[in-house]
C-alpha cells in the first residue's frame, strides 16, 4: 500500500535528517515506527503526508509510493484526497473551534457531504466523551480528550491509511490503554491501515503487526512485532529491560545508544 | 433628545461602515497574518464601480449593486492570485509592503479611469427624511445601517456554518494542522480577499451615497486601525463592536464637545482600553490549559 524507497529529507536546504529511509506498510496492517527522540520519526510521517513544506523541509531523493502512485511531490491537500491522513504530534486540535467544528474540519475534503452527519455519530460512538462536549471549545478539553478529538477528526476524512504521531504523548497510562484499544478497533472495524509512531515501544508492539526501528534517519531493524519484542537489543534500548530483567535508567540507555550497535 | 437621536443614527451609520471595513481587514489578518493597507482603496474602487454601473451603464440600482459585488469578488480573488500568492512564505513585512503597493496601484487605476475630481453620487439609497417620534432622521442613514447589518449577519453565518468558513477559522488557529486536514490554504486566502473586497465595496457605496464618490473615501479606510486595535486584530465580533464604539464616540464628541475633537477622542479611548486589555476588547486570548 505504502512504500518508501531510500527517502532523503533535508530541512532548510542544509540539515539532512532522513538518510535513505526505506520501509513498507501493507494494506490492513498496523505498523509501528519506533525510535529515540530526534531519530526522524515525525519527519518520516510529514514526508508521507506532504507536510514538510511549512517546516521548510523537502524530499530530495528517493520515492514514496501510495497504491503504486508516487506522492512525494504532491501537496498535502492531494495526499489527503488520495486517502492518507496524519494525526500530528501534540494533538494540534483547533483550539478556538468547537469539538463539532473540529470534526467538520476533518471532513473538509469529503465529497459525500450527506454522510458526514452519520460519520460524526460514529466518532461519538468511539469516543462517547466527545458527544457530551460537542459544543465546547476544543482548547478547553483535557489532553486525553484532545487526543481523542484528533483521532476522531482523522476518522471524519475516512482515510485508507492513518498516520499517528505519538498518540500516547503526555497521557496517563490508563488513558493510553484506552486510546490504543480504539486504534486497534479502528483498524479492525473501519479497515483503516495504520502507521503508528511511538516512544512507548511496549504498547506499540502490543497492537502492531509489524515494526521498524529507526535511528539517525535510517531504519536499523525491522521485523514482526513479535520478533522485535523478543529481540535482545530492542528489549534493552526500547523496552528498558536488561538481560537480567531489571530496569535501566534512561541515562544509561542513552549512553548505550551512542554505540549504535545495530549499525556495526 | 432630538439631537441625541440624530447623533446616534449618524454614529451608527459611521460605525457600521467602520465595522464592514474592519471585518474585511480582520478576515485577511486572521487567515494570513497580512495587514492589508489597501482596504481604503478597495472602498474607493467599490464606490466607483457602483457609480459606473448606475450612471455610465444605466443599470437599475439593485442590478448595479449585484454587478458591483460580482466584480468585487473577482477583484479580490485576482488580487490574491496575482499579488499575494506569489509571496506566500515570504516574510510578513514584505507582504505588508505589497499591500501598500497595491493601494497605490488601485489609486492610480481609479485616477486613470475616473479622474481625480470627486463626483456627486446617484441617489441609490433614497435621501428622504422620516419622523421617528419627535425626531426627524434621514432615511438613507437607516437604510445604510440595515444594508451593513445584512452583510455583517451574512458573513457571521458564513463563518459559523459553512465548510469554507470553518476552514478559514481552522487556518487562523493552526495553519499546519489545517493543511493536514487537506484544507486548501490558497483557496481560503482567495475567499478571504473576496470577502474583504465585497465588504469594502459595500462600505464604499454607503459612504459615497452620503459624501459623493471620490478618492477621499479611502481616508475613512484608515480609521479602520483604531477600530481593529480596539476590537482585537483577530476578532470578527470585535471588528463590529469596535466599529460601532468608535463611530458613536466620534458622533457624540463631534456633536456635544466640538468638531475636530471627534477625531482625537477615539484614540484616547483606544489608549485607555489597551492599557487594560492589550489584546483589544475581543482579541484572541491564548488558551492555556493547566
Ligand atoms: N523544521 C525543522 N528544521 C530543522 N531541523 C528539524 C526540523 N524539524 C526537525 N528537525 C530535526 O530533524 C531531526 C528529526 O526530527 P523529528 O521531529 O523527525 O524526530 P522524531 O523522531 O519525531 O523525534 P521525537 O521523538 O522527539 O518527536 C531532529 O534532529 C530535529 O532537530
Ligand atoms: Mg516526533
What does this protein structure show overall?
Chain A has 11 helices and 10 strands. With 264 residues, chain A is of the alpha/beta class. The longest helix of chain A is centred in the C-terminal third of the chain and has 18 residues, at 173-190. Mean pLDDT of chain A is 88; it is low at 242-264. With 290 residues, chain B is mainly alpha-helical. Chain B has 12 helices and 2 strands. Chain B has a two-stranded antiparallel sheet with strand order 1-2. The mean pLDDT of chain B is 87. Chain A binds chain B through residues 49, 51, 54-55, 76-77, 79-81, 85-86, 88, 92-97, 101-102, 104-106, 108-109, 113, 137, 139-140, 142-143, 153, 157, and chain B through 163, 166-167, 169-170, 172-184, 284, 287, 289. Adenosine-5'-triphosphate is lined by residues 11-12, 15, 17, 35, 37-43, 55, 57, 89, 199 of chain A.
H-E string of chain A? EEEHEEHEHHHHEHEHEEHHH
Shape of chain B: globular
- Based on DSSP secondary structure assignment, what is the total number of beta strands of chain A? 10
Cα distance spanning the termini of chain A: 31 Å
Rg of chain A (C-alpha, Å):
18 Å
Reported by name, the CATH topology of the largest domain in chain A is Rossmann fold
Q: Tell me the number of strands of chain B.
A: 2
CATH H-level homologous superfamily name of the largest domain in chain A: P-loop containing nucleotide triphosphate hydrolases
Largest interface: A-B, 33 and 21 residues
Helix and strand pattern of chain B: HHHHEEHHHHHHHH
Give the neighbour order of strands across the main sheet of chain A: 6-7-8-3-9-10
Sheet having the most strands of chain B: 2 strands, antiparallel
> How many whole angstroms does the radius of gyration of chain B measure?
19 Å
Question: Can you tell me the CATH class of the largest domain in chain A?
Answer: Alpha Beta
The portion of residues forming beta strands of chain A comes to: 25-35%
- Beta-strand percentage of chain B? under 5%
| Class from secondary-structure proportions of chain A | alpha/beta
Q: Give helix % range of chain A.
A: 25-40%
Q: Considering DSSP H and I runs of 4 or more, what fraction of the residues of chain B is helical?
A: over 70%
Per CATH, the architecture of the largest domain in chain A is: 3-Layer(aba) Sandwich
Amino acid at each position: 500500500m505504502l512504500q518508501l524507497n531510500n527517502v532523503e529529507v533535508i530541512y532548510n536546504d542544509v540539515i539532512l535528517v532522513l538518510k535513505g529511509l526505506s520501509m513498507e506498510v501493507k494494506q490492513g496492517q498496523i505498523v509501528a515506527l519506533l525510535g529515540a527522540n530526534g531519530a526522524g520519526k515525525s519527519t518520516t510521517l510529514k514526508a508521507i503526508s506532504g507536510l514538510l513544506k511549512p517546516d521548510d523541509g523537502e524530499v530530495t531523493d528517493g520515492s514514496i509510493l501510495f497504491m503504486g502512485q508516487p506522492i512525494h511531490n504532491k501537496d498535502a491537500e492531494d495526499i489527503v484526497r488520495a486517502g492518507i491522513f496524519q494525526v500530528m504530534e501534540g494533538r494540534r486540535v483547533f483550539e478556538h473551534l468547537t469539538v463539532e467544528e473540529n470534526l467538520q474540519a476533518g471532513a473538509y475534503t469529503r465529497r459525500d457531504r450527506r454522510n458526514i452527519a452519520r460519520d460524526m455519530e460514529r466518532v461519538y460512538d468511539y469516543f462517547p466523551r466527545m458527544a457530551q462536549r460537542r459544543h465546547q471549545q476544543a482548547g478547553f478539553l483535557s489532553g486525553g480528550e484532545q487526543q481523542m478529538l484528533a483521532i476522531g477528526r482523522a476518522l471524519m476524512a475516512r482515510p485508507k491509511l492513518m498516520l499517528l504521531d505519538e498518540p500516547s504523548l503526555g497521557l496517563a497510562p490508563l488513558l493510553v490503554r484506552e486510546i490504543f484499544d480504539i486504534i486497534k478497533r479502528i483498524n479492525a472495524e473501519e479497515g483503516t491501515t495504520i502507521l503508528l509512531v511511538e516512544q512507548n515501544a511496549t504498547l506499540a508492539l502490543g497492537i502492531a503487526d509489524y515494526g521498524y526501528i529507526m535511528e539517525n534517519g535510517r531504519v536499523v531493524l525491522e521485523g514482526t512485532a513479535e520478533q522485535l519484542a523478543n529481540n535482545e537489543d530492542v528489549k534493552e534500548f526500547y523496552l528498558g529491560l536488561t538481560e537480567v530483567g531489571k530496569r535501566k535508567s534512561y541515562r544509561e540507555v542513552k549512553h548505550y545508544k551512542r554505540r549504535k550497535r545495530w549499525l556495526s | 433628545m432630538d439631537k441625541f437621536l440624530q447623533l446616534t443614527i449618524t454614529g451608527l451609520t459611521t460605525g457600521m461602515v467602520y465595522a464592514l471595513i474592519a471585518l474585511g481587514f480582520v478576515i485577511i489578518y486572521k487567515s494570513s497574518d497580512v495587514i492589508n493597507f489597501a482596504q481604503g482603496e478597495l472602498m474607493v474602487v467599490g464606490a466607483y464601480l457602483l457609480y459606473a454601473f448606475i450612471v455610465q451603464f444605466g443599470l437599475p440600482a439593485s442590478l448595479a449593486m449585484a454587478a458591483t459585488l460580482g466584480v468585487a469578488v473577482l477583484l479580490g480573488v485576482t488580487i490574491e492570485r496575482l499579488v499575494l500568492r506569489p509571496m506566500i512564505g515570504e516574510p510578513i513585512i514584505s507582504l505588508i509592503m505589497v499591500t501598500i503597493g497595491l493601494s497605490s496601484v488601485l489609486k492610480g487605476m481609479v485616477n486613470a479611469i475616473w479622474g481625480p475630481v470627486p463626483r456627486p453620487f446617484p441617489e441609490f439609497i433614497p435621501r428622504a427624511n422620516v419622523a421617528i417620534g419627535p425626531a426627524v432622521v434621514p432615511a438613507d442613514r437607516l437604510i445604510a445601517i440595515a444594508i451593513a447589518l445584512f452583510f455583517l449577519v451574512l458573513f457571521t453565518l458564513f463563518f459559523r456554518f459553512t465548510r469554507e468558513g470553518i476552514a478559514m477559522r481552522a487556518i487562523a488557529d493552526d495553519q499546519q494542522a489545517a493543511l493536514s486536514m487537506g484544507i486548501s490554504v490558497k483557496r481560503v486566502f482567495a475567499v478571504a480577499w473576496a470577502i474583504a473586497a465585497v465588504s469594502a465595496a459595500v462600505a464604499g457605496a454607503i459612504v459615497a451615497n452620503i459624501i459623493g464618490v471620490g478618492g477621499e473615501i479611502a481616508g475613512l479606510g484608515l480609521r479602520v486601525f483604531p477600530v481593529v486595535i480596539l476590537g482585537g486584530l483577530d476578532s470578527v465580533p470585535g471588528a463590529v463592536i469596535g466599529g460601532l464604539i468608535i463611530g458613536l464616540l466620534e458622533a457624540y464628541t463631534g456633536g456635544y464637545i466640538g468638531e475636530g475633537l471627534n477625531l482625537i477622542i477615539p484614540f484616547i479611548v483606544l489608549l485607555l482600553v489597551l492599557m487594560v486589555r492589550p489584546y483589544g476588547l475581543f482579541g484572541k486570548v491564548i488558551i492555556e490549559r493547566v
